[in-house]
Each structure stands twice: as structure tokens, then as C-alpha cells.
Amino acid sequence: MSEYYKKLSDAETEAFGAEIDALKLDVKKKIGEKDARYIRKIHRAVRYTGVLGRGLLFLSFIPYVWFFGVAFLALSKILDNMELGHNVIHGQFDFMGDPTFEGKKYEWDIIGTSDNWRETHNYKHHTYTNIEGHDEDIGYGFIRVFAEQKWNPWFLLQPIYTFFFAFVFEWGVALQNVKFEKTPGKTLFQSLRDNNQEEWKKMKWQVLKDYVVFPLLAGPLFLTVLAGNAVANIIRSLWTFTIIFCGHFTDKAQVFPESAVKDTRNGHWYLRQIQGSSNISGGKLFHILSGNLSHQIEHHLFPEIPANRYAELAPKVREICERYGQTYNTGRLSKQFGQVWYRIFRHAFPSSVAA
């Protein structure tokens, strides 16, 4: 057990789980119209900033307007990805009975399909958080961020390829659940297309929308709008990469052996969520732009609770953690992101579990 987290007895673990359960039950009783109004405001913000951003890109012949267009379009995409799509897909707003916010059917403005995300993220990641062999989000399969991951010489290059991966992060996430098997008698491209029809359809639509349709509508400003859309997508990827990596791969974050998958008791599951997560401190706007994943600890504990409730839950979770000797891993963005990159550089080289 890490020095940051006290090893609890079975009785302590059960009591710890009971307190987290009681906290979850208490906040569930409060969920209602306030939360519905909040997500509707976010939905409107996504639409209005998106329209404004695309409209300004069409006016890019005016000096400096292009930069404002990119900024508003990137803002729309970030809000859609983080605070709207991610949280709606978790089913946080199913209580509304509004088809617009139905978790099992919601589709977002990103390369990957929501069905794939529900499989790799909602199910695998949230059920088996940081458990080796089960959570595919541990370094996304090609980045070594824990000493427990087997080293090979390829990892020596990871500081370089991780840097570039951040720029295309949405593509990395989209490809997580893609089937790459080659079908006999077909080319690799045909196999990829036929074995991943929904993914192919979504990727084709996203590429056509941002890199063909909207640029063509701009006429002589085709290249200007094309560049604006590309930069907005890159900004969204960089921001998402930063928030997600800071939520999972900081210095105090733990990884768990495959045997941990057998222990599904609430107390043990809650402990893994806390020990494998990191928060980021900041103001209200920062939390919204992060999709409230700046409260990653609370999100892992309560993925089905509306994320706008995490700020009020955080002090209570922290107090429980302190009483049970569990470090509440939080810090400013620069500190947490620095730790992420330290891990990426450190574990590029051979290291033992004790390192």
C-alpha cells in the first residue's frame, strides 16, 4: 500500500463504504429541476457558441476575426465534449425524461461514437478503474505511466509520441474500440470499414462536416475556414488530453493488480476510485470547462450523479478521506500536469514497482 493511503481493515473498509453510500443517497434526493435547468443552459451555450464561432470564421476576411471564430468554436466543442456529452452519456440526466438528454441515445460532436465510449469508458474504465488487464485507459495501451506496466524499448520514445498524441487525442479515443482484424479476401481498408460500420459512418460524417462542407460553404474562404475548424479541434483535443491525464496519472495515483477485479464490495471499489484518481483545483468556470472532471475523485465515486453537484460533494468526500487516512489527491493544474509529464518521462525508462 502506498504511503499516501492507509491500509484499512475489513471493518474500516465497510464503514468507509457505508459513509460514501450515505453521501450518495443524500445527494440523489436533491437531484431535480435545478440540475435540469443547468444542463439545458449548457446545451444552449454549446449551440450559441458554435453558431457564433462558425459565423465569425465566415467573416475571416476582417482582420483578427478568425481568431475569435476559432476561440468560440473551440469553446463550443469543449463544452459539448466535456460538460454536455460526457455527462449526459453517463446517464446523469436521464431523470429528466427528455430525449435530448437521454444517456443511451445521445451522440456528440466528436470523431468517436458514443456507443464505443459507453463500452470503453462508462463500462470498462468506471467498473475496473486502473486495474491492470481490464482498464484500457491505463496509458491507452501504448504509454507507460506506472512502474507496474511491463517495459519495452518502444517506451523510450513515449515523451515524443505522447506530445503528438495530445494533438489528436479525439482520434486516439475513437480508435480504442475499433476492430483491426483483417478479413480473408478483403483489403485492410475494406476490413476496417466493414467490421466497424458505425465508427466508419461517424468518422466520415465528422470529417466531411468540418473539413469539406463548412469550408465549401465559405466559398473563397475555404482554406481559412478549413484551418479554423482544424485548429478548434486541436484545441479541444489538447484540453481534453490535459484534463483526463491530470485526473488519472499524477504522482499519487495508483494502479491495481488484476486480482483486484474479484473484489466488488462497495468499500473496496470506492477506495480504488479515490486511490486511482486526481482532482484539479480551480474556479467555477474552470470546473465547467473541464466537464467537472476537475472533480475526478467525485466523478469516479458517483459517475451517475449530475456533475454540477460535484463541487458540493467534494468537501464532504475530502473530510471522509482524511478521517480514514486516504490522501485526497488535488492540486492546481500546473502542478498536476507537471506530475503527469514527470511520470511519462520517468517510466519511459526501465523501473521497478518499488521505484
From TrEMBL:
CDD domains reported in the protein's UniProt record: Delta6-FADS-like
Matches recorded under InterPro entries: FA_desaturase_dom (IPR005804), Fatty_acid_desaturase (IPR012171)
Keyword Ligase among UniProt keywords: no
The entry's keywords: Membrane, Transmembrane, Transmembrane helix
Pfam families: FA_desaturase
Transmembrane regions: 51-75, 154-173, 211-232
Domain Fatty acid desaturase: 66-330
UniProt-recorded name of the protein: Fatty acid desaturase family protein
Species the sequence originates in: Reinekea marina
